Amino acid sequence: MGGGGGRGPSRNDLSRLEELARKTLREGAEPTKFNVFISFANEDVNDVNLLRGQAKNENSEIEFNDWSLREPFDSKRAEYIKSGIRNRIERSSVTVVYISEHTANSKWVDWEIRESIRMGKGVIAVHKGESRPRRLPSAITELNVPIIQWTQKGIAAAIEKASSKRGE
Question: Crossing angle of helices 78-90/109-118, nearest 10°?
């Protein structure tokens, strides 16, 4: 007469299997790549290129898509330049501000920080070496932008935290 007669898996068994499947998917998933805009003074392009290189290195903990400018906009018209930068920031979830002794003198870094925050983007500031620069763009101190030392783990964690603060 037909067999089987047993019962199927319990709700507890199904819940455990579902949780195990979710955990396996999370652990096997590729790390999330964040879209990042890097704000920096032109004098610091070599250090910023090093950061970009670390993000491309598969052995690095820093991983992001770089939406920052490679070359300054070739224009004397401030509104045109702002429009181009604004477009890049819009495509990003986080703005990473590279701070050095040159940053406070940049005519664009302070504006980029303020614009990023106005757009609801996460913002972090990164510096090389043991001590941070003495002079900072005023937006960093006025808007309480977190400042971290340049380490791969630190930058990766700060980007993830800044992105999650804005609901990404």
Answer: 50
User: Structural domain of residue 83, as residue ranges?
Assistant: 32-165
Which DSSP state fits 72? -
Task: Report whether 94 contacts 34 (CB < 8 A).
Answer: yes
Pairing label, strands 122-127, 147-149: parallel
CA distance 78 to 91: 20
Reading phi first (left if > 0) and then psi (alpha if -120 to 50, else beta), residue 120 is in: left
Tokens read off for 39: 């704000």
Asked if residue 12 is part of any domain, the answer here is no
- What is this structure's pTM? 0.73
DSSP state of 42: G
pLDDT in tens, 112-166: 999 999 999 999 999 998 899 999 999 999 999 999 999 888 988 999 999 876 5
Alpha helices per DSSP H over the chain: 11-28, 45-56, 78-90, 109-118, 138-142, 152-165
- Within a domain: residue 75? yes
Q: How many domains does the chain have?
A: 1
Cα gap 104→113, rounded to integer Å: 12
- Residue located via tokens 């070599």: 46
Give residues with Cβ within 8 angstroms of 86, minimum separation 6: 115, 119
CATH of residue 127: 3.40.50.450
